[in-house]
Amino acid sequence: xxxxxxxxxxxxxxxxxxxxxxxxxxxxxxxxxxxxxxxxxxxxxxxxxxxxxxxxxxxxxxxxxxxxxxxxxxxxxxxxxxxxxxxxxxxxxxxxxxxxxxxxxxxxxxxxxxxxxxxxxxxxxxxxxxxxxxxxxxxxxxxxxxxxxxxxxxxxxxxxxxxxxxxxxxxxxxxxxxxxxxxxxxxxxxxxxxxxxxxxxxxxxxxxxxxxxxxxxxxxxxxxxxxxxxxxxxxxxx
Amino acid sequence: xxxxxxxxxxxxxxxxxxxxxxxxxxxxxxxxxxxxxxxxxxxxxxxxxxxxxxxxxxxxxxxxxxxxxxxxxxxxxxxxxxxxxxxxxxxxxxxxxxxxxxxxxxxxxxxxxxxxxxxxxxx
Amino acid sequence: xxxxxxxxxxxxxxxxxxxxxxxxxxxxxxxxxxxxxxxxxxxxxxxxxxxxxxxxxxxxxxxxxxxxxxxxxxxxxxxxxxxxxxxxxxxxxxxxxxxxxxxxxxxxxxxxxxxxxxxxxxxxxxxxxxxxxxxxxxxxxxxxxxxxxxxxxxxxxxxxxxxxxxxxxxxxxxxxxxxxxxxxxxxxxxxxxxxxxxxxxxxxxxxxxxxxxxxxxxxxxxxxxxxxxxxxxxxxxxxxxxxxxxxxxxxxxxxxxxxxxxxxxxxxxxxxxxxxxxxxxxxxxxxxxxxxxxxxxxxxxxxxxxxxxxxxxxxxxxxxxxxxxxxxxxxxxxxxxxxxxxxxxxxxxxxxxxxxxxxxxxxxxxxxxxxxxxxxxxxxxxxxxxxxxxxxxxxxxxxxxxxxxxxxxxxxxxxxxxxxxxxxxxxxxxxxxxxxxxxxxxxxxxxxxxxxxxxxxxxxxxxxxxxxxxxxxxxxxxxxxxxxxxxxxxxxxxxxxxxxxxxxxxxxxxxxxxxxxxxxxxxxxxxxxxxxxxxxxxxxxxxxxxxxxxxxxxxxxxxxxxxxxxxxxxxxxxxxxxxxxxxxxxxxxxxxxxxxxxxxxxxxxxxxxxxxxxxxxxxxxxxxxxxxxxxxxxxxxxxxxxxxxxxxxxxxxxxxxxxxxxxxxxxxxxxxxxxxxxxxxxxxxxxxxxxxxxxxxxxxxxxxxxxxxxxxxxxxxxxxxxxxxxxxxxxxxxxxxxxxxxxxxxxxxxxxxxxxxxxxxxxxxxxxxxxxxxxxxxxxxxxxxxxxxxxxxxxxxxxxxxxxxxxxxxxxxxxxxxxxxxxxxxxxxxxxxxxxxxxxxxxxxxxxxxxxxxxxxxxxxxxxxxxxxxxxxxxxxxxxxxxxxxxxxxxxxxxxxxxxxxxxxxxxxxxxxxxxxxxxxxxxxxxxxxxxxxxxxxxxxxxxxxxxxxxxxxxxxxxxxxxxxxxxxxxxxxxxxxxxxxxxxxxxxxxxxxxxxxxxxxxxxxxxxxxxxxxxxxxxxxxxxxxxxxxxxxxxxxxxxxx
Lengths: 238, 123, 1043
Known about the structure:
The complex is a heterotrimer.
Chain A: H1 2-16, H2 19-23, H3 33-40, H4 51-59, H5 61-81, H6 91-95, H7 103-125, H8 134-151, H9 159-183, H10 207-237
Chain B: H1 6-27, H2 31-53, H3 72-75, H4 79-110
Helix pairs in contact in B: 1-2, 2-4
Chain C: H1 5-17, H2 26-52, E1 59-62, E2 73-76, H3 78-97, H4 99-105, H5 107-125, H6 129-147, H7 153-184, H8 189-195, H9 201-217, H10 225-233, H11 236-257, H12 263-284, H13 290-310, H14 312-315, H15 319-344, H16 359-373, H17 379-393, H18 397-423, H19 436-456, H20 467-481, H21 487-512, H22 514-533, H23 544-560, H24 564-583, H25 589-617, H26 631-646, H27 655-661, H28 666-689, H29 698-719, H30 724-745, H31 748-779, H32 795-809, H33 815-830, H34 833-858, H35 874-892, H36 895-905, E3 915-917, E4 920-922, E5 927-929, H37 930-951, H38 984-990, H39 997-1016, H40 1024-1042
């Protein structure tokens, strides 16, 4: 109890540190110069109607590459950290204690999953026009996968397919970025493809291409992570 | 300037979440609850980032039928922090996933989730 | 040139593409990974070369074709190129080292390793603060992945602790960054620096959060328990990467962001860096697990570098050199040590004794330890030197003290460890396998430390003429590579080398600088003579020659040094060589350690004094003269520093063990020769103080008393020894007391006495130690009560010892008397009667132990098991009798040396206190003629000897077993030997003055240090939550201190 009181006191002291931050925060009445630049150059700069996407993929594309790497890293680490040997994977043991799922869920899954996948694809293809993008779309795709796993715990995704999608999209992202530096004005320059008409689906240079790769990659990675975790989960319960 | 405006409420909520998160990290013995503490911490930060992006009476930074190119500058919220928050969320996700993997392994080792039983190394 | 942006695109392209490879392609993917890192190394090397040799300007790389702050930009300049070159090359070597582990774990692990290296590059290159955050996160997630390359309970729990800690730290960083954006409107670091965030308190807090979390990433003491657990439990290959590569990237990140603060920010960083340096090294003393110990050392070293970053405002243009030299030492040595610990696979530093099975690895280990402590010729030596000089010049004298204290703590545990490895008696040495993939990286890093050291010397003040110090080192290096040759051949090479060195050095000195000539002759001629004794040893005698020559090269260097860095460089070379020599003896492990620690402490005092001098008068040795500011402090530091080598009372406890346990031919080297280095230092010091200061200078007065008491205590202790070599060792302490006393008198006569004593001590102590050492070599025991009657079996040894003790005790006719005569003249002239009386008593006591040497060893009954023992080896007889000839010449014609010395002293002590007529010296008090004394005593001696010889025919021989034990068998047979405890009654009366109070003092000092380390390290209780709490408290404490 005494220890908790002490921690509380320390934490209160610690929170006081944030007070100057709040005190000097006055909200924004107008955009910062940086944001203003992005907005004013929305059409002729990156050419994406969704300014956030323009920043995410082009202006701060290196951050996004980093994000993709983080997911990739996490998937890789979890991949070898939680790798279980062949004997442990013994199917009969693995699912002997799991309850069978309801028919309702199974049927609904069959109907829903294609829709979910399509929705995910829609989100990342339109990432430069509407709220959304590769990460969001990828996450949606992964939820479809989770649903499949819930409906049928014995469902096994083909690791090889996941790996290929992951590698191909990641590799293409890196290559596109490098192309920007080689034939364009800099790493991840989106103008190596024509900008197209502002606001159309085929516009904003390589932004939709990259976002699609990201969507595929994120979808594959998240699915992979969930799959690996679930395999281990069953191991625990035995 | 009122402390009850939207961005203040969001920001203060964010800080409260951060403090709650730290409290969870420091006091709960259960490894999973500690991971949840981190999620709270991350969420708090994300809320703060979004509250920093807010410009009074503005809308999302997307040029479409609602916001024309010309007056976008006066109508939209700051897109930069919104881009940052995306990154921050993804990083949070990665970290949480990895932490959960660790928890899984730790549990498999000692069949307990109590953080105090993982102190073999010290001094 | 390839743009550095492709470091990222290439490594990520490869990392992603590795997924295309099939299932059984672990090995292939690892090879591809190594090739990729090779390409990264090539790119960074290309840039580094362009910056260094070409006139390449710093380059900005814009991404997406927009200028900052609109897009993220990278920057590559000199520092960036060096750091990424270091990171990539250590990444390559580390990848080779970890190759098997990575292949075993699989493709995923290979990818994680590659991304880890890539992220470090980007942390260095990026100029955008949020991008920095992202790649730091990549780095910590990759680290969390590399941690589980080792999959056991400890590594996994430490990995979780790591994630908790870095999770909190990076969250704080993110809060700082977003508010930084709010207050500055930019995410570009350059804009952060320009915006002056300190204007509003909010901005200041945002900046504080950024800097504090970067600092926390560098594991500051005491908020670093998580990092220590990680270092301890994971694969050493990974620890190496964390300690070397990660730390360099984060340090550079801190360096980039630091200018956003104000001067006060730098001071704060400096303060916290130093706390880490001292605190972590203090706690390291208690460690026994090699990896954890390295963790403490790592944290400490990084703390020092952080502190150096904080010193940037006042280190001036030398900042870059200092930072890089100290950093690169840590970088190479720590990687090497971690890698070594992965090869040895021992959980306790005591088990490192098995390193001896592979001398090659032992040498590498020693290299890394000496690199960390800052010995020459390694880069840290030059870096630390320059750091101390610049700090002193800027007036931060107290920082000098703090840094040297921290370094000393580090020395304690590192040398303990080295001692265990070289010498600990350990019966069951576990086997270990040698895998070339693990050896090659260590070897390369080892070679690089030498190259880096050589290269560093070009950037240091006062090293314009360093070639004359490096040439002997190259010679030694060659000799080391010839170590496989038999001892005989190496000894010839060594003697030839030494003789040539003496031939080019000495003749010139005789004309120009007699002081240096005399000491140079002692060092080099003495060195050659003692080396001759080494022919006795059969086999290879591995490692002896490089160490011995290093000591002599150091001694020679001291003579040649014209400025302070040359002097200090040589001084440290000498310490290094002598340490290795001393620790070669049996049972010498603890003595080697205490010798090293006293030497280290002494060297640091000297270094500090040099720094303080440099800040006033420049770097020349002449600068010691006429100090305007704090002369007494500086002279005092120097005096204590030099006295650690002369083993004056209080600082002597290392000597008896070190000298007595050393090998038979090493004892004379370290006793007769090495101790004179301290004397030479004191002479330089006294000359700088100047004769005019002699009257009122309290330091000299104190030193005089100290010398007198040292003489008394040393001689008294010597007479109670049962161990012949210990007796000689204590006698050295006493003799050095005389010398200190004589020089402290600071008059013409006093100095003449001092020189005479020094030369005499060299001659007779070499004779005695060689003779006794040779006897010991034959009998395999040091104990005098186990000897006796050897006069018949070893007449050569007997005559040598007899002449030695006659010289030692200062009775006519030999040269010892000359010293005494001059000495009493000097004392009376000076008026130091009290002290003089003490020294007189000490001289009387010297008879007691001198007598024992003859009586217990050579007279009395011959032991049964010694009936067939042969006389001492010819290789000892040669140098001994050469030295005896020297004694005879010096005794018969002292004027040959003393006259020139008198002339030499004239400019310093202009006086006509002593005049010479032919061979007769005359003072106010009387006269003395060495030649005539010799002749007269010689005649008297022959007459008495002849008479005794005739008489002795009538004597009855006593049979050995002519005594009875009354039917009882004594429990401790030696007690019945009449030589055992011969001065028991005397001991009862005055023994109290040698009760080891001083040893007790040092023992309790080290116990207290140990206890403090043991107590404070309990804050690391192993609980991840506690570590998180430490981070919170640390941040809060920093905050409260600043705001």
